[in-house]
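idk why but the lab printer keeps eating my pages so im just putting this in chat instead. protein + heme C:
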Amino acid sequence: MSTFAGRTTAALLRAKPAVFTQQANFSLKSKTSKNIAWVVGSLAVGGGVVTAAALATPVLAGDPILHPAKMHWSHSGWLDTYDHASIRRGYEVYKQVCAACHSMEYMHYRNLVGVIFTEEEAKAEAEEAQVEDGPNDDGDMFLRPGKLSDKFPSPYKNEQLARNANNGALPPDLSLICLARHGGEDYIFSLLTGYSDAPAGVQLMEGQHYNAYFQGGAIGMAQALYNEIIEYSDGTPATQSQLAKDISTFLKWAGERDQDKNKLYGLRGIIVGLIMLSAVLFLNRQAWSTQKTAQLAFRPPVYKKYVKTFRKGHKDYGMK
Ligand code: HEC
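predcted complex ->
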């Protein structure tokens, strides 16, 4: 048995390696050159496509748009949570300013509970709103005080009424606006504070206003925020930028209400994952430790003896 194993090994060591190495070298060379050809080719094609796309996109001097600056928000970082005082002030801004024109149809009064109001406060808040319900036994619709399960009331009954009241422009629903606009809360903040006189040569139609952050510059919404336009219930000075910051935080929260929870669960997942990963690495090392530290060695004298036996064997059978 051992002779047999020795023969095989000796034969392998004697005859095969040279051929094997040559083959390996050969295929390695051809693969490398093929790879280089692929990389150069892909770069050339990719570069061509990008250049063609850049050339095909028109750059129009008459269509300027300012990109909002990237700002650091109290909820921006990986471990940062929402500033709830700011959400609360933002809700006040929405209710007293934006709600005159913008609906928030995915927001219910119950969503405010535990975030900016206690349940009692939220109930009282809902009751201030008059909600259409019905029909009653006479078949008529009627108004009743709102409940926690009600949506925020819409300022307009339908799109036509909304457009009619705003020179044809439709105030979009604000529930998900932060997710729906490039730049998110940075854009909302910049938009609300970015009104200016139209630059020379820009013609505005009736009911339009100039805002460099809005696509095209001419927006159908008049500047909504001014210093002291409302009074905050917590006494914070209501400057224009403060109002804009708070409503942006509120709208961000409205679009991603689970963000705090997601960050917490994500962090927990990473911590548990790291603990499990280190356990797996440890167990893996332990399981393989015997195999990985074992050494296979050929002892020269024995090896020579086997080679001799092998050659002799060949001769015995009339082989070279
Ligand atoms: C007088 C009515 C009115 C008020 C008040 C108002 N808006 Fe608007 N808003 C509009 C109209 C109309 C449009 C659509 C403009 C357009 O498409 O040209 C609009 C558009 C927007 C847009 C979308 C811009 C875009 O990129 O398409 C945002 C965001 C917005 N308003 C936020 C607010 C916020 C926040 C408030 C409160 C601080 C507010 N608006 C108050 C009428 C109003």
